[in-house]
């Protein structure tokens, strides 16, 4: 009884968070669309190849992508395909956040140590992602092998 109540509370929280994130993503996409249209239509000096415009534009796009990935990870938990948020998803969201930071970073005003720290974080997270993905694929192959051997008919003696 107590465990069922905990599961219901967790599912309710996940669904509320998913709804809130969906609203935020919809508003962010709407805001992004309006800014792009206003920049293209209203401003004659809108130049997407300008580095500052590029930084701002892709910073906003990556923010939406990060929110969508976070929402997807909550949906995976809600669908009970996994009882916890997977490490791979958390690492992917962290990688997206660092890539976003690199895109919006003004390289001319950033010291080398800061860039080195971001590069080290990307390298470390990339290694963790690779290791977790490799482990997931081995577990998936083992599960397929168990399923195929469980379904294989046992030979009958002559």
Features:
4 helices; mainly alpha; 80% helix
What does this molecule look like?
- The chain is mostly helical and 158 residues long.
- The chain has one domain (2-149).
- 80% of the residues lie in helices and 0% in strands.
- The chain has 4 helices and no strands.
- The chain has helices at 2-41, 51-78, 87-104, 112-151.
- α1 runs antiparallel to α2, α2 (51-78) runs antiparallel to α3 (87-104) and α3 packs antiparallel against α4.
- The longest helix is centred in the N-terminal third of the chain and has 40 residues, at 2-41.
- The mean pLDDT is 82.
Quantity of strands, as a count: 0
Estimate percent helicity: over 70%
Count helical runs. Answer: 4
Provide the domain count.
1
**Broad structural category:** mainly alpha
Query: What percentage of amino acids are in beta strands?
Result: under 5%
**Uncertain segments of ≥5 residues (pLDDT<50)?**
none
Mean pLDDT: 82
The ordered H/E elements are HHHH
Shape: extended
- Which radius of gyration do the C-alpha atoms yield? 23 Å
**End-to-end span in angstroms?**
53 Å
Largest sheet, in brief, is: none
């Amino acid at each position: 009884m107590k465990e069922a109540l905990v599961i219901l509370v967790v599912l309710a929280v996940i669904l509320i968070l998913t709804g809130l994130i969906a609203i935020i993503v919809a508003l962010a996409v709407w805001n992004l669309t309006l800014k792009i249209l206003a920049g293209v239509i209203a401003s004659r000096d809108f130049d997407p190849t300008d580095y500052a415009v590029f930084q701002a534009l892709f910073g906003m796009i990556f923010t939406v992508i990060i929110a969508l990935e976070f929402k997807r990870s909550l949906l995976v938990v809600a669908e009970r395909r996994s009882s916890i948020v997977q490490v791979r998803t958390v690492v992917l969201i962290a990688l997206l956040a660092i890539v976003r930071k690199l895109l919006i970073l003004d390289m001319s005003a950033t010291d080398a140590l800061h860039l080195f720290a971001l590069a080290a974080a990307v390298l470390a997270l990339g290694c963790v992602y690779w290791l977790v993905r490799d482990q997931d694929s081995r577990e998936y192959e083992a599960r397929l092998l168990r399923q195929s051997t469980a379904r294989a008919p046992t030979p009958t003696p002559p």
